[in-house]
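Record type: monomer structure entry
Structure origin: computed from sequence
Chain ID: A
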Amino acid sequence: MTSISSGLGLSEREAAALLIQSGFNELPAARRTGLLRAALDVVREPMILMLLAAGGIYLLLGDLREAIVLLFSVLVVVAISLFQNQRTERALQALRDLSSPRALVIRDGTRRRIPGREVVPGDLVVLSEGDRVPADATLLEQSNLAVDESLLTGESLPVRKAAGDAVHSGTLVVSGNALARVDTTGSRTAIGKIGRSLETIAPGKTRLQEETGRIVRRLAIVGLSLCAAVVVLYGMTRGNWLQGFLAGLALAMSVLPEEFPVILTIFFALGAWRISRRRVLTRRLPAIESLGATTVLCVDKTGTLTQNRMAVRTIATAGSVYDVSPGNDPLPEPVREVVEVAILASKPDPFDPMEQAIRSLEPRAGPPLPARRAEWTLTREYPLSPERLVMSQVWVSPADGRRVIAAKGAPEAIADLCALSPSESESVQQAVGTLAARGLRVLGVARGTFDPPELPDDQTGFAFELVGLLGLADPIRPEVPGAIRECRQAGIRVVMITGDYPVTAIQIAREIGLARDHAVVVLTGADLDRMDDDTLRGRIESVEVFARVRPEQKLAIVRALKANGEIVAMTGDGVNDAPALKAAGMGIAMGQRGTDVAREAADLVLLDDDFASIVAAVRMGRRIFDNLRNAGAYIFAIHVPIAGMSLLPIVFGWPLVLMPVHIVFLELIIDPACSLVFEAEPEEADVMTRPPRRPEEPLFSRKTVGLAVLQGAGVLAIVLTVFAVALSRGQGAEDARALAFTTLIVSNLALILANRSWTRTIVQSFRSKNSALPWVVGGALCLLVLLLAAPGPRELFGFSKLHANDLLLCLGAGLSGIAWFEAFKIFRARRSLPTPG
């Protein structure tokens, strides 16, 4: 292909106008849920149905005011639910925008990588191996292009393409590269016409969703059973069946933990959004569950541990070694030929960092080279293959028809291609070892000749001679050593995988702190080829670096680690990396240099290709899981006193404490607390100093539930004592109910503060910023003051006016609960008891 970037393409102004005219380049998605539909979905929730039933009973009793309050509370709960739904939907939409496939287009004569949904008819699209074709287009130029069209035709073999042929949206470029002009986009493409069936595919439930679903179903059965028992008991002992129904509904509402599905949805959606702010895109929400369980991070070196900004540092020829200094000074004559051949062996408009580094030397190679390059024509390319790590390009001079064949690649492959003698090969290996020991990546450069008119099918058909060696450097990212230390503290083992020589890989491993006080343990791709599965399993536990590894060998590494019980996160960017990414517990694709195939196979996509972003995502994943578990513990804990104060007064023959209107008030605190306060809670102090979580560990273990129930039982004992003491002192039912309910509200806030963290005291937790906490706690206290002070609400809730001494009693009871929780934390810390879960 003579010029992959010929033509200026559309201007940005033209593209913007066409985008308005043709719409986004995407298949019709399932319609977003409208407000009315979302409201109807909320109304069908069990809690809302119970409120409606309670309102209906109050109407039958002739208590219009209670009925209106309950029905109004339905509107309030629906409004809160819609707000949470809209917040979640906005987070998910932001993720969908980020996850849009990328396309490389030419606009205003400049290459730009844009979201695939912004491609418009008329765009010039650059296609390379591993890319998904973003829209239906016609090829203008191509080089060795083969496309997998099985998505459309079912044909398993790749289809060779020529200039003028059509390529279709969604098909995969398996080899070569091309320049194409977009014809149609979106639903007008071939795949768009048959893709509407995708709208009916619903994603499966995650393990946590299944776990919480089981909990909700079991507690719903318990709640309904107790509801029926209370109705019967109340009706038979007190003779008032409608009041019995109200008491039963209050008990059912107190037991039903309808918050679990809500917090799971919100935590996952907002968690994925928070992770995306760390430059990591979550393609599959279940990946959030696995982040905290990762035990091994298998990481590519180039671009992830290093800056992926290669520069030629050394040029070696048969007679000399020249260190290339930064700047624009001309290169000395002995090394110009090496640079010239290396440039001719590189793509005209390279994307690969090594080729960009080589091409950057063209102005320094002397005046003749640019002039000759402008005259020559690229007629044939022999691409890199797994079997031969060399690429060659054939150039022809139109003036005299002379051919120039240039090759570059792995030094051992170049030596083999040049048919060097054993002594010559040994000399080359010594030179390579010297350069690699300096942490340089080494490429061999060769020039070939050919006489017959027909070019051979394989580059081995040329007679090559070695021209020289290039040593390239890729500096490590400055934040990587700190991220490596953080992984080590978190019990996560980091393994580096590279195609470089072992000595180069060892040098990088030492720079990033992967090796500490011992020699670096290295396995090469050749070693992997000689090992069976059992041998690899035995060796892999001590390996820190895999060098000279082919992409397809990553799958064997993943399988060996998984067979040893490790939870593996694997990075990758190429087509051949996809099986390993799919097999790993956590597949991580490169967002900048990765292929679409790798991104589709991965669970996470690094938008900046930075290793530190992986560590930040692990930290965020652990935080999300901790906060989700703390929120669940709070839900378990608060439902114990609510259920107890709904049931025990009936059993003891006391006046009722909680009715549906009281449950609604409590839910107005509980819902925002578990979905906003706990989601916004900062990470625990030990989040990256404890070992990874076991993958089979449930969100709510027996220990977690047991501690939560113990907390709730303590609150129940306090509230029940306040209620019993008030009755024993001769205070009326309204006095006792007001005291018990106020104590329950204060204790509820104490539970929120206590469950924010299991490693910090409540006082320490106040030092950590949580934007939602002041609003929830302050709003609850303001509503409580209004409820106790205003005659109308006080009468509605069945309260009497409390005196200062009564309020001090409630406050003291609530503070005793806080002291209880703090004492338990101190006891747990001194006994070195593990965090709940």
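Annotation 1: Confidence is low (pLDDT under 50) at residues 1-6, 195-204, 831-837.
Annotation 2: The CA atoms of residues 385 and 727 lie 86 Å apart.
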